[in-house]
Design brief:
This protein is α/β, with parallel strands linked by helices and about 375 residues long. The chain is built from 10 helices and 12 strands.
């Protein structure tokens, strides 16, 4: 996908390391560095900088919409996925008689708003079996009280990629009134999104999308019947149509849907970075990234099994992700050995997680396996 020359030019930081930790933090391309420098120059214009700031945001909205398969007006931005989920909770205003389905493979941002609510809804946990979620387990969790089903397309925890079609068909059959929220943070920019018929899509920007912290993509299809319920009630100004009108202290007129999730001044720096990063990914093509990186994941999985290490979630043909994870009782010492060799993976609570993007190479995998074998 990248030649040795273009890889060195676009990602000079990768020259001396094998970086297998994009599921935590990406290595942004040089074009993102340049975009941040442009933001600084535009910010130096003072109030006149608002013109290029807003032009860049609209350009970013356009490319983000294409990447997630929505129309431009169906996409907005906030500061992180945690903020997006709290705003979603605000929009839904759930009560004690309502029910929410979450999974044990999800990131805390998608689960904790419902647990921390002033009047918590009843939370039902969809539990994985052998590291995978099975839609056959869903009907027992769904009923007429289900107001929200929250999932991640790819799990941050073990790399399991949700089999979307049976999932969404089951939810629509057993809880047709439920809002379906999908977090694509661990998918967008790495795999072709196959999630359709969702009600809200959320993605952080500092992982596979190659952006920086402080950004989040929110997508809400306007033609969904449930979409009318997804307008936040949060205070602010940027999401209001009458923020500076004469009646502003008497009532609020909120922009509907995705636009309501941008409640305050945009983080223009993150948006400059995201605009550049998404256009970089679009130029390369997510299909090309998948074609290049999936065999590397297979190479890694084979190497792990040859070392008698079993991935927590196996990759599946046609439904793979960029993440593999293993458990080991000496994860801390193994991780220290890998770090000393400039091989970077995630280590948390006895779990080593490896993530491979389009900028990775077979040599990265070989180095990881070699150092891992020595550590074992």
């Amino acid at each position: 996908m990248l030649t040795e020359e273009s890889r060195h030019h676009d990602f000079p930081a990768l020259t001396d390391m094998a970086y297998l930790n994009t599921a935590a933090e990406s290595i942004p391309p040089v074009s993102v560095h340049e975009a941040l420098a442009q933001y600084a120059r535009d910010k130096g214009l003072g109030m006149r900088g608002r013109v290029p700031h807003n032009e860049t945001m609209e350009a970013c909205r356009e490319v983000a919409a294409r990447m997630v398969g929505l129309q431009t007006e169906e996409v907005s931005f906030c500061s992180c996925s945690s903020e997006a989920y709290n705003l979603l909770a605000n929009a839904l205003h759930l009560g004690a008689d309502d029910e929410v389905v979450i999974t044990d493979l999800d990131f805390p941002a998608g689960a904790t708003p419902w647990l921390n609510a002033a009047e918590p809804p009843q939370t039902r946990l969809w539990q994985a079996r052998d590291g995978a979620l099975d839609a056959n387990d869903l009907p027992a969790l769904l009923n007429e009280h289900t107001r929200l089903v929250q999932v991640s397309l790819v799990s941050f925890y073990n790399g399991h990629r949700l089999d979307w079609s049976p999932f969404i068909e089951t939810v629509r059959a057993y809880a047709p009134q439920a809002i379906v929220a999908v977090d694509v943070t661990q998918a967008l920019g790495r795999v072709e999104l196959d999630c359709t018929d969702f009600d809200i899509l959320i993605s952080s920007t500092h992982k596979w999308t190659l952006g920086v912290h402080g950004g989040c993509i929110v997508g809400i299809p306007e033609n969904h019947e449930n979409g009318r319920d997804l307008t936040t009630h949060a205070g602010g100004w940027y999401h209001l149509q009458n923020a500076f009108e004469a009646d502003r202290f008497e009532r609020t007129v909120r922009k509907p849907g995705a636009a309501s999730f941008s409640v305050g001044m945009p983080n223009y720096a993150a948006i400059y970075a995201l605009n550049a990063a998404l256009r970089y990914l679009e130029q390369i093509g997510v299909t090309n990234i998948t074609t290049h990186a999936d065999p590397l994941v297979s190479q890694l999985e084979t190497g792990l099994r040859e070392l008698n290490l079993t991935p927590m979630a196996a990759q599946r043909d046609g439904n793979a992700s960029g993440i593999l994870a293993i458990r080991h009782d000496r994860a801390d010492s193994i991780h220290a050995t890998l770090e000393a060799a400039e091989v970077h993976v995630m280590n948390h609570a006895g779990r080593l997680r490896m993530a491979l993007h389009g900028y990775n190479t077979a040599a990265d995998v070989e180095k990881f396996l070699s150092v891992l074998k020595g550590a074992l």
